[in-house]
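Project outcomes to date are best conveyed with an example. Our students and postdoctoral researchers have been running inverse folding experiments weekly, and each run begins with a structure described purely in tokens. The record below, which covers 263 residues, was selected by the lab manager from last quarter's runs and is presented without edits.
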């Protein structure tokens, strides 16, 4: 698999500056998802070094079709996964996130705050093994609009609000005790957690199953094959998501590498 630096540079050039309120994380705001020095704690040298490696790792998003079972690592982000598995900082924790409507982002944010500011562990790494209905948050708004993903998400999600920047993101980052600030429940969002160093897995199995659901309920305006529809969803994952052949199976690899399981 070849990494196209010109394409990645072009995507990054479309990004908005970290902290811009109300920006939508997607193909037009790739930089909003980047782990950022001002958002990360002092002393997080190992975590920052990891994210430099993750930024350099390619994300293939030019698929025409994808099979049901991925047999070749060109179909997932194997370089990024290898860097994560090799992480020597810590502690490191992987979350089994499967319910879109659950308070999963709030729980991850609370855990970050405690590990960093209470237990003084700046190199703490938190990873979301995202699958099932929670995986709907891994698609950009363009896919929500085209395929009516709100029908799968339920009445509480007319749009993918979990990738929306919150006003609190523009608060003073030095004041991490601000009850309405960037580290508070007022800024529960995927981009906010990514800027703090959190990593979100995408799950091919969930993509395949959600593609099937869209075909069955008639939400397939281009009359794509199952393989082509799954490819399009894959190509529209949120920036910096790490695509896995299956989140639950990959979760096991991370437990074997010393990541602590949380659900």
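After processing, the design step wrote out the following sequence:
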């Amino acid at each position: 698999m070849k990494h196209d630096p010109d394409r990645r540079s072009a995507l990054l050039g479309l990004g908005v500056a970290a902290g811009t309120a109300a920006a939508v994380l997607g193909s037009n705001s790739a930089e909003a998802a980047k782990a950022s020095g001002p958002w990360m704690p002092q002393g997080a040298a190992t975590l920052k070094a990891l994210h430099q490696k993750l930024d350099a790792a390619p994300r293939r998003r030019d698929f025409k079709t994808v099979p049901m079972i991925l047999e070749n690592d060109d179909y997932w982000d194997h370089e990024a996964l290898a860097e994560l598995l090799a992480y020597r900082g810590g502690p490191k924790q992987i979350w089994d996130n499967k319910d879109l409507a659950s308070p999963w982002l709030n729980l991850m944010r609370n855990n970050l705050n405690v590990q960093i500011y209470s237990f003084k562990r700046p190199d703490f790494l938190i990873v979301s093994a995202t699958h099932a209905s929670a995986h709907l948050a891994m698609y950009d708004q363009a896919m929500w609009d085209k395929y009516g993903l709100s029908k799968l998400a339920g009445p509480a999600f007319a749009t993918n609000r979990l990738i929306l920047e919150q006003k609190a993101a523009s608060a003073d980052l030095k004041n991490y005790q601000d009850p309405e600030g960037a580290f508070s429940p007022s800024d529960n969002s995927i981009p906010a957690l990514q800027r703090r160093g959190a990593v979100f897995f995408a799950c091919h199995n969930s993509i395949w199953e959600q593609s099937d659901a869209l075909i069955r309920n008639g939400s397939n305006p281009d009359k794509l094959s199952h393989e082509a529809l799954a490819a399009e969803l894959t190509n529209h994952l949120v920036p910096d998501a790490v695509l896995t052949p299956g989140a639950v199976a990959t979760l096991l690899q991370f437990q074997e590498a010393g990541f602590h399981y949380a659900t």
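The chain is about 35% helix and 10% strand. Residues 104-118 form the longest helix (15 residues). The training component of this project remains on track.
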